[in-house]
Specification:
5 strands; Rossmann fold; alpha/beta; 5-stranded mixed β-sheet; globular
């Protein structure tokens, strides 16, 4: 099973990026065994959801990495190196995964689709550059899901 989780706070401008990507993905057909959820800022809820057991978790979030705003990146975090921590309101990927570990759960593989925010100020709606990046993130998640569902398939897109 695959869980795609959009995370972030829609009241902090670009922090709502993961929620918007999840909303878009939830409105389209996906392969059997793929679940899309917008968990918002409910980190503890996501950790408990993961206790049901998933082969792949794809987290979608606004992540400040120092890249240009709107830059979408995909990476695989080192889950085994995380220290257990419980924070019901913290929603960064490290906190969620360390909470899961602290609860005795695990997930087969974790991938993160992140977007560099332009603004994390109070306010509703994504900045124009991050709003444009939503399509690229949706496409990235689709490719990751397709590869996971049919791992022997050769990808022709980069």
């Amino acid at each position: 099973m695959i869980l795609v989780a959009g995370i972030g706070n829609i009241f902090l401008s670009d922090d709502g990026f993961g929620s918007e990507v999840a909303r878009r993905l939830a409105s389209e057909p996906l392969p059997e065994g793929v679940r899309v959820v917008d968990v918002g800022i409910r980190g503890l809820h996501l950790a408990y959801e993961l206790l049901d057991g998933y082969d792949l978790l794809i987290l979608v979030d606004a992540l400040a990495t120092g890249a240009a705003p709107g830059t979408v990146s995909v990476f695989e975090p080192e889950v085994d190196d995380l220290e257990p921590a419980v924070d019901a309101h913290g929603m960064d990927p490290a906190t969620v995964l360390s909470t899961l570990k602290g609860l005795g759960g695990e997930v087969g593989r974790v991938l993160v689709v992140g977007c560099e925010p332009a603004s994390l100020e109070e306010g509703m709606g994504l900045s124009p550059v991050v709003a444009q990046a939503v399509d690229a993130a949706v496409d990235a998640v689709r490719r990751l899901v397709a590869r996971a569902v049919t791992p022997d398939a050769v990808s022709t897109t980069k």
